Amino acid sequence: MSKLSGDQQTDAKDQGALIGQFGVGFYSGFIVADKIVVETRRAGLPAEQGVRWTSGGSGDFEVESITQDKRGTHIILHVREDALEYLSTWKLKSIINKYSDHISLPILMRKEEWKEGEKDQPGEMVVTDEWETVNKASALWTRPKKDITDEQHAEFYKAISHDFEAPLAWSHNRVEGSTEYTQLLYLPAKAPFDLWNRDKKAGIKLYVKRVFIMDDAEALMPTYLRFVKGVVDSADLPLNVSRELLQESRDVKAIREGNTRRVLSMLEDLAKHDVPADDASDEDKQDAGKYTKFYAEFGAVLKEGLGEDFANKEKIAKLLRFASTTSDTVSVGFADYKARMKEGQEAIYYVTADSLAAARNSPQLEVFRKKGIEVLLMSDRVDEWALGFLHEFDGTPLQSVAKGAFDLGKLQDEEEKKAAEAAADTLKPLLAKLKETLKDKAEDVRITTRLVDSPACLVVKDHGVSLQMARMLKQAGQAAPDSKPI
Fold first, then answer.
1. Is the separation of the CB atoms in 484 and 441 below 8 Å?
2. What sections of 231-347 are H helices per DSSP?
3. What backbone torsions phi and psi does residue 126 show, to the nearest 5 degrees?
4. Prediction pTM value
5. What's the CA gap between 325 and 195, in Å, rounded?
6. Is 379 exposed, middle or buried (0-12, 13-18, 19+ CB in 10 A)?
7. What is the crossing angle of helices 428-437 and 414-426, to 10°?
8. Nearest C-alpha neighbor of 300 from the set 392, 250, 227, 215
9. With 80 as the cut, is the pLDDT of residue 241 above it?
10. Residue 103: pLDDT above 90?
């Protein structure tokens, strides 16, 4: 009480934390009780100096002296008629297991045993004089990393995520500084069935000093990493934290940024060892193929980060993988593509479509195949939207082969350019007639060098909405911008 009565050495933050703990831990008892009695005696005082505090929760209370033989405190709740379920041993144990399983102090309850009935009477559970500990009194994330086995990590992950498979990878760290917290984050091996339901509450479990606060703390992880499972235990947040406070807290923002960096770092490490070198260590070889497995499950969700997390856009871009005209598997990153670019090539080329087969057979690719230029094939529905936020990679621009005027720059022969110009002059009357005939359906009709076998293809202006995006908007029941192809 001295802290609350004006101790000059106690700052407002400490006072607020103390009030929060007292309020959450004690006054919440009036939710189920119409009267609470506290009987206590401090160690070192005689038995006659015990104190009894009684309150009905209406603002008034009574204090009287009592005789108490043993030191310590008893808190007695007189439970209301409509809350008698909280006298059930099973109900109490389930609450303790959910909210207080990991606090450092053991919680004891009198043990119940089954007693058979006598003289044809039914049996029943009876309370014995034996005490049992009903919480684990330890938290996995508070133990040193070296003391936790892979099996323990797998068991803990399955308990908090309700997943049947072991996690693909995990990261366990204690962060100190202006904000102090412990993070234990897991990457699942399989995507949940509701991964694409953005309205579903997702997030990691939040604890404050080992006390469980909430299940899906969305503010602690960005939406595009909603598949991550785990625990954050903060030493700075108050126990009476709410979802509204989480949105505004500076400490929560620091935790969110730290979690994001840690998950992206995990993914970078998996990507680095996805195809191990011949001289790689046994530990690195154990990670072989894990990133490929992760990307097959969550790659499309990761792409959402390009539009949601501008601070980490470059890191996310390095983690993306695609199929290409030289690779049937989704394994080509922007860095791999750039390392294989032909001399004189000035852009990273890509094409989007409804499926890999449609992308691979697109007529826009004909001249690229002829010249041996690799093109990335993108078939995820999110690709078109995500790449609207990524215009270059490591200084090299990204260019859709289905947009804008065709120009291969130094890779295009002078003879091809002259032949195209000559054809444009020769076919001027035909082009004029086609433009007039298609004026309501096409913005322009041009001669192009991008085709080899096909007679024609459709493209859009450089900054126009692509045909693929227009189709997706219509399928979603949204109005697509009124733009004509070329």
1. yes
2. 243-248, 250-272, 282-286, 290-302, 305-308, 313-319, 334-339
3. -125, 150
4. 0.73
5. 29
6. buried
7. 70
8. 227
9. no
10. no
Residue type at 198? R
What are the tokens at 16?
């607020």
The 3-state DSSP class for residue 276 equals: coil
* SS3 state at 403: strand
DSSP E strand boundaries for 42-197: 50-55, 61-66, 72-79, 108-115, 124-133, 169-175, 181-187
Calculate the alpha carbon distances from 142 to 21, 78, 106, 160, 417 in Å. Answer: 21, 36, 16, 16, 68
How far is the CA of 486 from the CAs of 121, 186, 399, in angstroms? 88, 48, 17
Cα–Cα distance for residue pair 170/167, rounded to 1 Å: 7
* Closest among 195, 107, 102 to 141, alpha carbons compared: 102
Q: pLDDT digit string (tens) for 176-206?
A: 888 899 999 999 999 888 787 766 777 789 9
Determine how β-strand 396-400 pairs with β-strand 348-352. parallel
What is the per-residue pLDDT across 251-261, written as a single tens digit (0 to 9) for each? 889 999 999 99
Place of tokens 């099973």: 90
Residue 5, pLDDT above cutoff 60 = no
Which structure tokens are listed for 423? Answer: 């054809």
> What token pair was written down for 430?
């035909």
Give strand pairing partners of 50: 66
Strand order across the 50-55 sheet: 61-66, 50-55, 33-41, 72-79
**β-bridge partners, 132:** 109
Per-residue model confidence (pLDDT) at position 102: 75
Cross-strand partners of 400:
350
pLDDT tens, residue by residue, 384-422: 888 888 989 999 999 888 776 666 666 667 676 777 677
Mention every residue, 6+ apart, whose C-beta is less than 8 A from residue 285: 273, 276
Q: What are phi and psi of 162, to 5 degrees?
A: 60, 30
Asked whether the beta carbons of 211 and 100 are under 8 A apart, the reply is: yes
Examine the pLDDT at 23 and tell me if it is beyond 60.
no
- How far apart CA 259 and CA 250 sit, in angstroms, is 14
